[in-house]
Amino acid sequence: MIKKLAIVFGVLLIAASAFAAFTRSGNLVNDDTNNLVWTRSPARELPWAEMETYAGTLDPVGLWRLPTRAELLSTVVSTNSPQIDSAFAIGHSPSNWSLWTSEEVTEGDYSLSARAYFVFFSDGRAYTTNKRSYHAALIVRGDGYLLDSTGAYLRDSVGLYLQGGA
After folding, report:
1. How many angstroms separate the first and last alpha carbons of the chain?
2. 84 has a pLDDT exceeding 50
3. Which H helix or E strand runs over 3?
4. 8, 100, 135, 155: which has the fewest C-beta neighbours closer than 10 Å?
5. What residue ranges in 40-151 does DSSP mark as E strands?
6. pTM of the model
7. Which residues contact residue 104 at a Cβ distance below 8 angstroms, ignoring those fewer than 6 apart?
8. Mean per-residue pLDDT for 73-79?
9. What are the CA-CA distances from residue 28 to residues 89, 120, 139 (Å)?
10. Share of residues in the chain with pLDDT > 90 (%)
11. Which residues, other chains included, contact 34 with Cβ-Cβ below 8 Å and sequence gap of 6+?
């Protein structure tokens, strides 16, 4: 049953990544398909808990966070090396190719507090590791705020931030 679910999940991720539309906007990347905004370059390497805290400090108008496994896997482009959409700039150093997700390991013999998932962009797959390991991260927000071509948040005439789809 678990293998069947994993296969279905994998097929859905491949389908989602095939339709993702990423556009660079300054130091950010808009994901028009999933209504997300990403940092274009990864944050420095930190242990998982410190990375979650760091992501929460990038907060001009909404909450930044670590991406889910599915969100991060949607950036995979298997024909690229590293295997990530070209709108992102994760560099050519293999140390930047492994990026944290927000997901902790909850199944198997591993303690919830001990392991988390990361995506390794050398092969475009998700793995687990000890949360004390150091990995970089692309930070994401899913609130749909609109960005102009410079990466600035768009505001209406009274200074309120505009949300996509509103």
Report:
1. 40
2. yes
3. helix 2-19
4. 8
5. 43-46, 98-104, 115-120, 125-130, 135-137, 140-141
6. 0.71
7. 112, 113, 115, 116, 117, 131
8. 89
9. 10, 21, 10
10. 39
11. 16, 20, 71, 74, 142
At 38, the pLDDT band (50, 70, 90 cuts) reads very high
Which residue type sits at 102?
Answer: S
CA distances from 67 to 21, 99, 100, 136 (A): 17, 10, 8, 12
Query: Where in the chain are the domains?
Result: 2-141
Residue 24 has pLDDT above 50, yes or no: yes
Compare 48 and 112 and report the one with higher pLDDT: 48
- Is the pLDDT at 13 greater than 50, yes or no? no
Please give the Cα distance from 86 to 88 (Å, whole number): 5
CA angle 126, 37, 71 (to 5 degrees): 20
Dihedral of the CA atoms 125, 129, 131, 136 (nearest 10)? -40
- Measured from the Cβ of residue 107, the count of other Cβ atoms closer than 10 Å reads 8
Average pLDDT over residues 61-70: 82
Write the Ramachandran bin of 144: left for phi over 0, alpha for psi from -120 to 50, otherwise beta. left
pLDDT of 151: 55
CATH 3.10.100.10 assigned to 2-141: yes
| Backbone angles phi and psi of 30, in degrees to 5 | -90, 135
Would you state the torsion angle of the CA atoms of residues 34, 145, 147, 59, taken in this order, to the nearest 10 degrees? -110
